[in-house]
Amino acid sequence: MLRALIVDDEELARRGLEIRLADFSDIEICGQARNGREALAAVREQEPDLMFLDVQMPGMDGFEVLRRLSGSAMPEIIFVTAYDEFALKAFDANALDYLLKPINDDRLREAIERARRHTDEKLADEHRNKLLKFVCELTGRELTLESALRAAAGEHQRYPKRIAIRDGSETQCVEVAAIDWIDAAGDYMCLHSAGDTFVLRGTMKHLEQVLDPATFVRVHRSAIVNRHRVTAMRPHRNGEYFLQLGDAAELKLSRKYKANLERLANHI
Q: Is-contact 219 195, C-beta < 8 A?
């Protein structure tokens, strides 16, 4: 079964998709959201495998939802859009699934079949990597970790205090201590800080080496957390834990990194 979340600001569009998905025996609708903020909350609460995401929504649009999710928290994404042909070519070039409104039944079946194939972990990581690459191209924020560190370098220090992030035509420096958590997929990493998300090209292994281990703890193969942001922990199955970061996020600590649990527990 694939647990699906429907995100669209139009009630009739949500209802219409719900009716069509009833024909798929392996699709279970776990929730619906009317806007981007509801979508982010539903992903945290429901942990869907698949999300039908409307691109054009007031306030936080589908691309902003994608940028704030990213990394390990990202379900499989099927965009629902009324964009023109140029935009559709951009989706295709980045191996993104999409449905053009009004939704065609054959295209719906094709998109769901692609989502089924992506449930394989390796394919899912490749898909997330392509989505993050697309976000970088869309926002003009792509920057390598090496360039980000070099651009913010001042006096020689063992651990950097700032990371330079390109935002469109401007570059701003993000205080490392203000980073809440980092998650990643493939060659891209998402730095979450004060409600914003910045995408960098680089590896978690490299980033882990340059961050102060007294503050930043690896909790998953695709996640590093600022231990000062962890407000609660609760056990999960098979020796895993869920880490609560205030109202910002909930991350999973995998068994592989259970040895780091004490470093987190000592802070709470």
A: no
